[in-house]
């Protein structure tokens, strides 16, 4: 089958993904093989491809926002029938036995597997996944609309929840890519006022279109003090700037898996009970809740589609802020 393979991490400008043939994987006991229709592109894929996340499997097929149909069920896998439409997200497998799993914090599992990082993912015509980590996709979403919900959407949702966003919350977004363009729709549905700080004017424009009260540059001070802010951009220099925008007792959430070093800053920026917290991975419950909520709102994702063979181009465009919303690779129709 066709797949995009990363042999050696390298800058995306050198187009390190190789569009090639690999063997179609076989589902083991309890696993499903999913025929990939689409796979959305995430900034984490860029971190994997460029080696900002240390390689865990080599070569590897990236991609962890897959929508497709069940093609084959491994031994004992009975949760879905062949042909069922399903989604695959970043959390690929947990051990179910560590202290975090037992505590219901499986996103922090001591021995997790991650799709498109520690195991092959969705930049391919098919992929395998434990049936326990697969999501039914609400019928109301076309494939390409649903795919960006599976990481951008879920992580944004988890960040909003940890930021305690509700009616009247003044909420800042730092960076306005795929995750923020979904999260703003949830935040507005919950009655929050959104302020978007992002370097690219196209992204500022999208934020306003989606109902942001204000949009400005990444390090600009929003016109009102924020109750909470979520940093989606991987730039450490945003942290002190965002703290400056928070009211006393305000909450700062860091939504990315990777960030450049955070510059040192005076304690006065943090004092008065401001909080900083990172957001790591997702639980399956987060995924189920976000997908249900997305159908209820309903969330509309903006996507730009690329053929699978052009994954390098999609990632280059992502790096250059050239995608309003999310990029999606079209694999099979
Ligand atoms: Zn665990
Ligand atoms: Zn992701």
Offer a quick outline of the entry:
The protein is an alpha/beta fold and about 325 residues long. The chain has helices at about 45-50, 100, 145, 150-160, 180-190, 200-210, 240-245, 285-295, 310-320, and strands at about 1-5, 15-20, 30-40, 65-75, 85-90, 90-95, 115, 125-130, 135, 170-175, 195, 215, 225-230, 245-255, 275-280, 305, 325-330.
If you had to describe this structure to a student in words, what would you say it looks like?
With 333 residues, the chain is α/β, with parallel strands linked by helices. It is 23% helix and 26% strand. It has 9 helices and 17 strands. Strands 3, 4, 5, 8, 9, 16 and 17 form a 7-stranded mixed β-sheet that branches. It has a 6-stranded parallel β-sheet with strand order 12-11-10-13-14-15, with helices on both faces. It is globular. It starts with a strand and ends with a strand. The relative contact order is 0.17. The mean pLDDT is 97. Residues 94-95, 98, 100-101, 109-111 line the site of one zinc ion. Residues 42, 44, 64, 90, 151 line the site of one zinc ion (ZN).
